[in-house]
Request: fold
Amino acid sequence: MEVEPIVCDRKAAQAVRDKARTLALFSEQGGELHLHLSGDWAYFSAGHRRSFVNAFAEADRCLAGRIRPIRFIFRGEAVALIDASGSVQMK
Reply:
C-alpha cells in the first residue's frame, strides 16, 4: 500500500503549535500526545475550545506527517480527545 505525503502549510502549522505552547505543556505518553492546558482554558467559550482542538490536531498532523492520538487535559481531567483516526471528542 502506497502512502501519499501530506500536503500542508508547515509554516502555518508551526505557528499554531507555537501558539499552543503558550496555552499548554506538551508531553508524550505511550504514543499519545498530551496537552496539559493552562488556566486560560477556563475562559474559552465552547466554540473557541473546539476551534483550538481542531486547529491543533490539524497542525500536529501536518508536522508529524500522520494523525496521532492527542489528549487535552485541564485540571487533571481529559477535556478533549483525538483518536488515531482523527475523530474529535469534546468532553
About this structure: The first helix runs from residue 10 to 20.
